[in-house]
Amino acid sequence: MVENGKKFMMKDSMRVTVGLIVIGLIGIISHIVKKIVKDQKIEKQEIMNMKSKSNYQKKSKQQSYEHYEYHQDQTNKEETVLLGGSIKMEERKLVELFGKRKEYKIKTLPFTIGKVETMVQLVLSDPSISRLHAKIFEDNGQLYLQDLNSLNGTFKNGIILEGNEEVLLEPDDEIMIGRLKFTYC
User: Which of 48, 112, 130, 135 has its CB 3.0 to 4.6 Å from that of 120, i.e. a possible disulfide?
Assistant: First the structure.
């Protein structure tokens, strides 16, 4: 009878051990699945960004060719035409949507935004703004907005940017930096 009791206790301890192993495996599998899903989301976003950037680069090249053709037609004039069709600096600005509706001209690029005066071109002293929050920069004649791993995020037209994500800026885009909203003009 004692032998049967020992066998029964061994079976119970084996069941507990197997149960613990299964629980551990489930935890590991769950972690792996979460990582795969996260990686897929990041990869999908990168593909969308690449497609978007590629489409705008194609448009930019087409505009450059049109600009070149215009220059060729005007060869008998003495004035030199700037190729590339870059937007004039004085035309670029962020307009605050609420409150005082302040206008912030984008005079130099890259144009960084944050709350540390010595590190940025646009100082926003709201507590929701990171020290170095976001930047606007130019690539192939187009302006892009990039979140700089800010704590409270940067949004373009209601969609949050991932850390270091770059998105094309177009006129009338709504930009949210922390909890402050702007329109890009």
Answer: 112
